[in-house]
Design a protein that fits this description.
The chain is mainly alpha-helical. It contains 5 helices and no strands.
Length: 193
């Protein structure tokens, strides 16, 4: 079993070496020849002419070639130079937060378990049941808002002539949301209150 793998490996290495050698001999030599020809013609037209010309007849174009290059290395917005390295900046952002980040608003504050609930398994089970019920109610409430929105999106997609696969994907999403809502309502009727 190992002999074919070793033979294959050797074959791949030999072929790669031959390709590298061929590239070095043929492609690089052609590029070198083109470069020599190009530099010879540039020498005849540019440098030789400038050397033969007296200094008083020097070319009048004195704009530096680097002026066309922007001072930033990004085509995006220019960044202010910073003396803080990235690791320090990241550590500060982790500790103090990033001032550029939007504020996260939590719409519900989760009830923390009391010391008694943590100490007593029965009370903690009741705490968990309350948390799960809050989650289930939140899902049903969100589903009641999202289902009509998805139905309207599906109707618009059909009217716009979207691909049947895309419409089927939206319908499947709608079906699963409705199915989960119905399952939660049947298992826990109190979520509908």
């Amino acid at each position: 079993m190992k002999k074919p793998i070793i033979g294959f490996t050797i074959t791949v290495v030999v072929l790669a070496s031959l390709a590298f050698i061929a590239r070095t001999w043929f492609v690089d030599k052609q590029a070198d020849t083109a470069l020599v020809t190009q530099s010879a013609s540039a020498t005849e037209a540019g440098v030789g002419a400038n050397l033969a010309r007296p200094p008083s007849q020097a070319p009048t174009d004195t704009t530096p070639a680097s002026s066309a290059i922007s001072t930033t290395d990004s085509p995006l917005l220019p960044l202010e130079p910073s003396t803080v390295d990235a690791a320090t900046s990241m550590a500060n952002a982790m500790k103090n937060g990033d001032p550029r980040a939007p504020v996260i608003i939590h719409d519900t504050v989760q009830e923390a378990a009391t010391a008694e609930e943590i100490a007593n398994p029965k009370l903690y089970a009741q705490y968990e049941a309350r948390q799960n019920m809050r989650l289930y109610k939140g899902y049903v409430k969100a589903a009641e808002v999202e289902i009509p929105r998805l139905q309207a999106d599906i109707a618009r997609a059909k009217a716009a002539g979207l691909k049947p696969e895309q419409i089927a994907e939206g319908e499947e999403k709608l079906r699963r949301i409705q199915q989960m809502r119905d399952q939660l309502a049947s298992e826990h009727p109190e979520v509908l209150r």
